[in-house]
């Protein structure tokens, strides 16, 4: 195998495939030139390794850099308790502002509101009264009609009862008279027969 | 490494929901690496620091556009690459090197600081594309495919740049390191 057929630097950096590594190792065992080349590569790498990484003169300005901080609304949104406190604070402020600002409003609207309310109350009272009067009238009318009907019914019943009574009296009178007539006849017969 | 990836993924997910602390932690993990990557591209500490700041700011602003959170590192380095090259294009004409190369004498016995200077000098002799390939591979440990993603070019191009750079560095640094040993 020729020296050109192997990628010595790929092997040196450990990036050769397994097969290529075996081929390179086989070639190196037989080729002094490539062994020397590999040795020079190792020396070069060792020399390069003498150049150490430098420490940063200062840390990357990060935590303090505003650019990296999330927007205020994102921070707020992520913090439940903070959001709660701020909400409560806003509510308190709103109540305070309302308490201080609201009395300063002119009283005229309130008077208007009161007079409006009185008008409404009066109108409602009138309507209620009208409704009550109407309802009472309806009830009284219904009562009168019912009373009249009851009286008429009572009269009719009384009339029927009276007629029935009269008929009964008449019937009994007729019966008595017939019985008296018969007794009288019997008595006459007895009287006439006995003389 | 696996746990680290999982944690990064979680941090990214939380950062996407607006959790700044999660993103802060993510930055603290990556800031040094990103800073050194940019520093080796632009060669100026203050510029590198400013650019690193910009990189993390842009990353935060566009975090929602990251489709695959497991690809965070290449995505972040892509932003860093763009920022660094934007500055290089603004400051220097095309092809001009970032700094003046320092000369070194091959084979001379060097102190560690001298070796570091020699390495720095050798890196500065590379063109920006080659230097970036070395930085991403040797110093940042990315795989070829990840480098291709960061540099927005084919893997073959990445390899070509890296191999050429290694050949140049090898000529300068291998003798220095051998002499030191």
Describe this structure in words.
The complex is a heterodimer of chains A (195) and B (181). Chain A has 195 residues and is mainly α. In chain A, 77% of the residues lie in helices and 0% in strands. In chain A, helix 2 packs across helix 3. Chain A is elongated, with a radius of gyration of 66 Å. Chain B has 181 residues and is mainly α. Chain B folds into two domains: 1-91, Rna Polymerase Sigma Factor, Chain: A, CATH 1.10.1740.10; 101-181, Orthogonal Bundle (Arc Repressor Mutant, subunit A). Chain B is 75% helix and 0% strand. Chain B has helices spanning 2-16, 20-42, 45-61, 72-91, 112-125, 128-139, 144-151, 155-180. In chain B, helix 3 crosses helix 4 (72-91) and helix 5 runs antiparallel to helix 8. Chain B is elongated and about 55 Å long. The chains are: A mainly alpha (195), B mainly alpha (181). The interface between A and B is large, with 34 and 45 residues.
Order of helices and strands of chain A: HHHHHH
Number of helices of chain A: 6
- Please report the total strand number of chain A as a whole number: 0
Tell me the number of structural domains of chain B: 2
Query: How much helical structure, as a percent, in the residues of chain A?
Result: over 70%
The overall pLDDT average of chain A reads 82
- Estimate the mean pLDDT confidence of chain B: 84
Q: Helicity range of the residues of chain B?
A: over 70%
Shape of chain B: elongated
- Rg of chain B is 18 Å
CATH class of the largest domain in chain B: Mainly Alpha
Main beta sheet of chain A? none
| Count of discrete domains of chain A | 3
Note the main sheet of chain B: none
Number of helix segments of chain B? 8
Q: What amount of the residues of chain B lies in strands?
A: under 5%
Named at the architecture level, the CATH assignment of the largest domain in chain B is Orthogonal Bundle
CATH topology of the largest domain in chain B: Rna Polymerase Sigma Factor, Chain: A
